[in-house]
Amino acid sequence: MQRESGCRRVLVVMFIAMGVICLTAAPYVWNRYLSGLIPPPLPSFPPAPPYTPWPTPPVAAGFDFPLLPAASYGPLPNTRYGVHNPAFGDRSNCFRDAGGGGVPFSQLYHAGIDLFALDGAGQTAWGGATHDPVHAVADGVVIYTLDAGADGYIIIVEHRLAAGPALSEAEGSAVYSVYWHVSSVQVREGQPVARGQIIAVVYDQGFNSHLHWEMRAFRDGSNLFPAGTAGARGTCNGHFAGVGYTWDDDPARAAPDYYGYLDP
Ligand SMILES: [Zn+2]
Questions:
Q1: C-beta of residue 108 within 8 angstroms of C-beta of residue 95
Q2: What ipTM was predicted for this assembly?
Q3: Both 151 and 228 in a single domain?
């Protein structure tokens, strides 16, 4: 008898405790939702138009920012173009030096710019860019899309700079815009896109949601980097996507503009 009432008392206490926890947690969850830390649902888009095989891109008349309005996004000091990010430390990312050793992530040069959302005061709004629309920076043709798994998708768009009979990378008549850490891809390889067209949204990386935006003068890194250099060893630069970071054994070739990455 005494044991049974003890059980009942424990159950009552547990019930009250659960009620208190729910009542305490509800405003917290609601506030997190309101502050945007819990991402809103994805916007809905019309389906992508049918695949068009590799047309010649129109000449790009002008360039814009991939996240709009441009004033609402900006890089952190460590996520600008051409900088090292000491915060990444000694872990080797993707480059091997001439001796085969892993190059510390903190020594790599950022080949693009990481755009985070800014609040009204111009401060970083962590996670605020989640699912924001990503726009093509100019008229062009999508030449590459890749599901990079936990890093989101990569999209590369080719932009023609001068009128002429054929597009020639050697003549410098094209540039390429690269969008990384995106999801809900709205375009396919071979599809023409117009400046400002929504091609994807910023991939949800929690507080770290950002767009890696890269501009470069080369299409395919696997044909670009001389044999024996870090870029040719099948590392970050030495394949088609070639996104993110650059490095070289020779310091004179290490900075990203040497091989044709451009400062957006
Ligand atoms: Zn980046």
A1: yes
A2: 0.98
A3: yes
